[in-house]
Write a structure and sequence with these properties.
The complex is a heterodimer. By secondary structure, chain A is of the alpha/beta class. Helices cover 50% and strands 15% of the residues of chain A. The chains are: A alpha/beta, B mainly alpha.
Chain lengths: 345, 282
């Protein structure tokens, strides 16, 4: 241990410096993760937690000496099959207050590929809980993680780092919420059985939408996707007559021509004049006639519109990065001082 | 220190409403939600002072203070505040508190700033007839409901404008959803029309006994406002007036309702036992 405090460290690799092919090798499915845990248990570090997500594999801990860090890197390479040379090119390491800053920035979503995303906060919490359950959290990591969680929450609340959605599917959901308030009672019609439509449908389901219908020119694909999404399938030739039954219509087919014409939409409103319909045209070429936007109670967004909103939100988040980092630095340094003070006692 | 007169209490109330409006505006400009609890407390304080001011005025004029344009507008603002304090928390609409503070501040400060509206203070205008007093209070209360409806309609129009222009972030993100605004607007319109209908039903009994007590401008203005709101309600229920057009109609109708206060006031006259003074009771 150093005279100025414990050897607190972070060691690992992430999307920042590891290309996709190396991240694929680094990935730790449950069986490999268990093997890694066995190996690092043998290393007998005083405190250690493993953060394992699709974009990062990182250790946070307190080492007895620099040698422990080399042993950890070797264990990771042994389990993943990554060569020591490759690991050396992607390896990221910080110590002392820098590692607290890094952990807090990760928990706040500042280090995520999708800046400001929320999922990472839960993943860091899970990593901490796992380490606790294995008895690998001592007074230093306990304080560092707890304070990092508090600081990350503070950053998310007091900056715009997490404001707005930055993926097309989530922007579509955000739009639906601004129109319908909540999605529990909304009925969603998905036209097409492609990837983007499926992602959007899943995003709607994750926010409470329960009534989902899939319609596709190839009925087999519609049935297959409906089964995956726990939705119902509607014959493609009939969907136009049922448009008025849906609150949200998502167009994501690969049809070369428009499949929802203004006249079809106008007829749909004949049966629901007081109820709005959100038309999301995620297809290229477009599925929905742009003239649909002119109808009363109709809101039409195409792929460009959604991408533009996502880009604006991302720009707003990016503009907050330096402020968020300054907040994190201030809080991390204070935590480090506390750690040193307790270490000296 | 001499006791505070009714207008002073009403100025204090108006200041509270203005503070609420400024608080809401600052939060809106900073693209943050204002604190609902703080807004509620500020509006409740303004409401308490306004109630006391109107109570003092009521004691002075021997009845519900609805004897001139100033009192009518103050009572309308008071009705809007009452409604917000009673049902606002149930609606849980963001920005409704700000809108109510803005509306009540504009109405009450506007009324206070025009001395001529309060130059003539009429006493005993209801001649001790509690039913007529009830009719007038109910009518003005429905105007308060229509005031909140106008606020909700403006919020709907702003939200609709944002959605059509692909703007959902920033201050637009603070607005409630289109469906919530539509549903609450419909309920407010129904409540306002029913209250006004009840008020007119009570008033018509007295009017049939003494037709000369109500002049033609008041009769036309009141029936016109009722017919317009009633028609808007009917068309909305039949889904013939919906969405943006319906919200526009509700916002414009409130302007008409406010303008109708002048002809309503023109019908004010002294009852057999009434008095009419120039600024005497304040």
């Amino acid at each position: 241990m150093s005279a100025s405090g414990p050897l607190l460290f972070h060691l690992g690799a992430s999307h920042h410096n590891a290309p996709l092919e190396l991240r694929e090798k680094l990935a730790l499915p449950p069986a490999r993760a268990a093997e890694l845990h066995e190996r690092i248990a043998a290393a007998q570090l005083p405190e250690l937690a493993l953060l394992n997500t699709c974009n990062r594999v990182e250790f946070y801990g307190v080492a007895g000496s620099e040698h422990d860090l080399i042993a950890l890197g070797s264990a990771l390479c042994a389990v993943t099959g990554l060569s020591a040379e490759d690991f050396a090119t992607i390896r990221a390491q910080t110590t002392g207050p820098e590692s607290i800053r890094h952990l807090t920035a990760v928990a706040a979503g500042l280090e995520s590929q999708l800046l400001g995303e929320n999922e990472i906060f839960g993943q860091v919490k899970d990593a901490y809980a796992a380490a606790q359950s294995m008895g690998r959290v001592g007074p230093v990591l306990n304080r560092v993680f707890q304070k990092a969680f508090q600081a990350a929450k503070h950053v998310r609340t007091h900056t715009a780092i997490s404001v707005g959605q930055v993926s097309v599917a989530n922007v579509a959901v955000e739009l639906a919420l601004t129109i319908f308030g909540d999605l529990k009672s909304t009925r969603v019609l998905l036209l097409g059985a492609g990837d983007i439509g499926e992602k959007t449908a899943k995003a709607f389901q994750s926010r409470g939408a329960t009534s989902l219908t899939v319609s596709n020119r190839t009925p087999e694909r519609a049935f297959a996707l409906a089964q995956t999404l726990d939705a119902t399938a509607l014959p493609f030739e009939h969907f136009v007559h049922h448009l008025g039954n849906y609150d949200i219509v998502v167009g994501s087919t690969s049809a070369p021509d428009l499949i929802v014409r203004a006249a079809d939409a106008a007829a749909a409103f004949g049966r629901r004049r007081a109820q709005p319909i959100l038309f999301l045209d995620l297809a290229l070429p477009r599925d929905i006639d742009p003239a649909v936007a002119e109808l009363q109670n109709s809101y039409l967004y195409n792929l460009d519109d959604l991408a533009k909103i996502a880009a604006q939100n991302l720009a707003a988040r990016t503009a907050e990065v330096s402020r968020a980092r300054a907040l994190i630095a201030e809080k991390a340094d204070a935590v480090w001082q506390q750690v040193i003070a307790r270490h000296a006692v | 220190m001499p006791p505070l007169i009714d207008r002073t209490w009403l100025w204090i109330a108006a200041t509270c409403y203005l503070v609420g409006a400024v608080l809401g505006l600052v939060a809106l400009l900073r693209e943050r939600r204002h604190s609902r609890a703080a807004m509620y407390i500020i509006l409740a304080a303004g409401y308490t002072f306004q109630t006391f001011g109107l109570y003092l005025r009521g004691l002075a004029v021997h009845g519900c203070p609805l004897g001139n344009k100033f009192e009518l507008i103050q009572f309308t603002a008071w009705s809007a505040a009452t409604l917000y304090l009673v049902i606002g928390p149930a609606f849980r609409l963001s920005l409704l508190g700000f809108g109510t503070a803005l509306l009540t501040a504009l109405l009450s400060i506007g009324a206070l700033l025009v001395p001529s509206w309060d130059a003539t203070v009429r006493t005993h205008i209801f001649g001790g007839n509690a039913w007529i007093e009830f009719h007038a209070a109910l009518a003005l209360f429905s105007y308060g409901v229509f005031g909140l409806l106008a606020l909700v309609s403006i919020m709907y129009l702003v939200r609709d404008y944002g959605l059509r222009n692909k703007r959902i972030g920033g201050s637009f993100a603070l607005l409630p959803s289109i469906r919530d605004l539509d549903q609450i607007g419909l309920r407010l319109l129904g409540a306002g029309v029913i209250l006004l209908a009840l008020s007119l039903a009570v008033g018509s009994v007295w009017w049939r006994r003494e037709p000369a007590t109500v002049n033609l401008p008041k009769l036309l203005a009141t029936l016109g406002v009722f017919a317009a709101y009633g028609l808007a309600w009917l068309l909305r229920l039949r889904e013939q007036l919906t969405g943006r057009r319906w919200a526009q109609a509700c916002a414009l109708l409130y302007l008409a309702a406010l303008l109708s206060i002048a002809p309503v006031n023109s019908s004010r006259h002294a009852s057999p036992s009434a008095g009419m003074t120039k600024g005497a009771t304040r």
